[in-house]
Structures are given as structure tokens and as C-alpha cells.
Amino acid sequence: MLGLMSSEWFKLRKSKVLSLLLVAPLIGLLGGLAGSIPGMEGINEWYGKIVMMNFSYGVLLLPLITGVFAAVICRYEHQEGGWKQLLALPVTRGNVYLAKFLVLILMMLVMQLLYLGSIYLVGTIGAITDPFPMDIVWKSILGGWVATFPLIALQLWFSLIFNSFAMPFAINVIFTIPNILVLNSEKFSPFYPWSQPFLMMNIGGSAEDFFFVPWEQVLTAVGGSFLLFFIAGYLYLQRKAV
């Protein structure tokens, strides 16, 4: 398994998409330096900065970049009989799928940690003297990471189906763009997979809830959709003709 994961990591390094790990945290950094949410005077100054940064990061950047990495990770196998060469090795299809998924979630964890660094850097540059809300921030960072699991599984499934990088990426863009509208709907946002990263990072949600959203939402919208997409992609690779 570690050998397969190392191979996937090497292929991603060659594709030069790893620089995207820095793009979203940098944009978040610039957003935080630009200002904070008005009307939050009198509370911890960090909160205004974090809410400002989380909006663009959680609504657009995190879902989009998740889709890019998932779309790229099968690109080499789709070229010049790559699947035949890979599956001719003494590896199982299940391990290949699991290795790709694990590499993707680890990459998103790295990006979340870089984003955490950008949050702290914004406060340092802005000379914020209020105590850093570590408990709230860690909850936001881990919540956003967990919320990407269904998106990664879905995009990996699409990446297995389509030979072109453009198709799975385009699908992800189509469903990410309406996020702002969906988030305004109390009826649809709790079940829309592309909305979950922002909702589970939103420190403006209920601090008493698990990852700022009800536990039932974590189980259904995140856990349920993750299992559905993960199993669908796993079974597809098992039956994929090469």
C-alpha cells in the first residue's frame, strides 16, 4: 500500500499541480488581510478575520481544488494503456483505489494545515492581541477536511469513468458555482455535498454542534454521501475494462 501511495505521490509531483496546495491558503491570506466581517466589534477580533477567510475558501476554493486533484490523479492511467500497465503489476484493484483516495485526503489535510498557518499569519501581521481561539479554529480546520471526503470520493469516481481531465473538473465546477445560492437555502444546503466544507468550517454556526452542524447532518450529508460515492467508485474500478 505504501508503495502504491508513493507512486501516486510521484505522479502528482510530475503533474506540477501540487502548487495548488498553496493557492487557496494564499487567497485566504489576502482575504484576511483585506478586512474582516463588519458588525463583529466587541468580540474576539480573530473571529471576524476567520469568518471573512472561510467564506471564499470554504464556498469555492476548497471544493474546486479538491476536484482538480481528484481529476488529475487518474490522468496517467488513462494515457497510453496506463491502466493495463498498472494492473499488470502484483497489486489489487481495491488497493489501487484505496491508495489514490488516501493520497487525496492526505493532500487536503496538508492544504488545511497550510490554511491554518495563513489564519495565524493574518492575525500576526494585523497585530491581533486577542487570544487565538485554538479550539474553534481546529474544529473548523478538521471539519472542512472531513467534509471533503464525499467530494474526493465522487470526483475520484468520475475520474475513473472519464478519460479526459476536463470532464470531471467541469462537473465539479458546475456543482460548485451554485454553492452561494444553495447555502441560502435551509432546505437544501444541509444535504448538498458541495456546501458541507463551508458549513463545517463556519464558526458562525452553532459552536455546541459537532463541527458547527448537527450530528445528524454529519452522518447523513457527509457520512452517507461519502459511503455511497466511495463504494460506487470502488465497485466501478473492480469492473472497469482495461
Mind sketching the topology for me?
Blueprint: H1 2-15, H2 20-34, H3 45-72, H4 82-87, H5 93-125, H6 134-161, H7 166-176, H8 179-183, H9 196-199, H10 215-239
Helix pairs in contact: 1-5, 2-3, 2-5, 3-5, 3-6, 3-7, 5-6, 5-10, 6-10
Order of helices and strands: HHHHHHHHHH
Mean pLDDT: 80
Q: Helix/strand/pairing class, anyone?
A: mainly alpha
What's the helical proportion of residues? 55-70%
Which geometry do the CA atoms define?
A: globular
Q: Write down how many β-strands occur, each being a DSSP E stretch of 2 or more residues.
A: 0
Organism: Ornithinibacillus sp. 4-3
Keywords: Membrane, Transmembrane, Transmembrane helix
Protein name: ABC transporter permease
Transmembrane segments: 50-76, 97-116, 136-158, 165-183, 218-237
Question: What does this molecule look like?
Answer:
This protein has 242 residues and is mostly helical. It is built from 10 helices and no strands. The chain has helices at residues 2-15, 20-34, 45-72, 82-87, 93-125, 134-161, 166-176, 179-183, 196-199, 215-239. The longest helix has 33 residues, at 93-125. It starts with a helix and ends with a helix. The model has no long low-confidence stretch (mean pLDDT 80). This is ABC transporter permease. Keywords: Membrane, Transmembrane, Transmembrane helix. The chain crosses the membrane at residues 50-76, 97-116, 136-158, 165-183, 218-237.
Summary tags:
242 residues; globular; ABC transporter permease; transmembrane helix; membrane
